[in-house]
Amino acid sequence: MNETVTAAPPRRGRPPARHHGIVPLNKARGVTSFQAVREVRRILGERRVGHAGTLDPAATGLLPICVGQATRLVDYLHQQPKRYHCVLRLGERSTTMDLEGEVSRSGDASAVDAAAVREALARFVGDIEQVPPMHSAVRHDGRHLYELAREGLDVERQPRPVTILEARLLELRPGEVAEAEVDVLCGKGTYMRVLASDVGDALGTGGLLAWLERTAYGPMTVADSITVEQLEAMDDPARALRPLDLAVTFLPRLDLGPAQALQVQRGQSVWVPRLPDPRPRGACRAHSAHGDLLAVGELQGNLYRPTKVMAGF
């Protein structure tokens, strides 16, 4: 669900991007993440566009679309937590762990109560391992797993470490096939389909993911997002772009003077005599006196070494 797809870098002779920033897109059901990128590319008239974290076609919600220089910051977006609003269906299984596959009854969930669901969810909070589903964009021997699944193949997949920070039960609708409405805050690479299946197994009923919306991604929320239709209707769609530093707000900030800013823009290391309190270490973002994001880099003592410089625009 969090596989990155970005547009190819500008080719020689291709005009530079005119727009730079992040569109907090509210993806509609039935639209692939790549289709969403293509629509934003068309509306803005830009080639250098990509997304940060795949949402399955059946899922809705927040899909950050990076434009221009923002495509260089996708890796930092991935480091930020994501929040999902899910409906887990207990008492059914699916070949794809959601409603897109072949669904079958797997147990009677009549005896499952809210306390049991909360206890099962708690088992998966923290640093855990998940086996990627066959219907996913993870690669195996150079091919996507979903391509192999379409050919009827099922290959061995190694468990991957993921982190679930919160998993709260919002509502339980009981029955032989019960539905648990859940709010999940997690790190990168976490599959809600796998969580639904694992929770169902923990309850002894089996489970699948019946509905999914991504409601937050780092500092962005779905309440502040925009649909493709709303973006296209704007007189100036570029006004929907959020600042580049939205991708790196979790990093400590350094504000540089004009001379230091010029050096950093040239890719040179600078001495920073005054550091914010508490004193930052490691990865930091550097800003100009006007507040513009200049670079992301490493702070060693008082020496700041830029590793990813934002081109002037």
The coarse overall form would be globular
CATH class of the largest domain: Alpha Beta
CATH superfamily of the largest domain: Pseudouridine synthase
Structure annotation, total helices: 7
Q: Structural class given helices, strands, pairing?
A: alpha+beta
CATH topology of the largest domain: Pseudouridine synthase
Question: How much helix, percentage-wise, in residues?
Answer: 10-25%
Q: Which stretches are low in confidence, meaning pLDDT under 50 for 5 or more residues running?
A: 1-11
- Please tally the β strands and state the result: 19
Give a verbal description of the structure:
- The chain is of the alpha+beta class and 313 residues long.
- It folds into 3 domains: 5-80 and 219-245, Alpha-Beta Plaits (2-Layer Sandwich); 82-216, Pseudouridine synthase, CATH 3.30.2350; 251-309, Archaeosine Trna-guanine Transglycosylase, Chain: A, domain 4 (Roll).
- It is 19% helix and 34% strand.
- The chain is built from 7 helices and 19 strands.
- It starts with a strand and ends with a strand.
- 41% of the residues are buried.
List key phrases describing it.
single chain; 313 residues; alpha+beta; Alpha-Beta Plaits; Pseudouridine synthase; Archaeosine Trna-guanine Transglycosylase, Chain: A, domain 4; 3 domains; ten-stranded mixed beta sheet; five-stranded mixed beta sheet; 19 strands; 19% helix; 34% strand; disordered N terminus
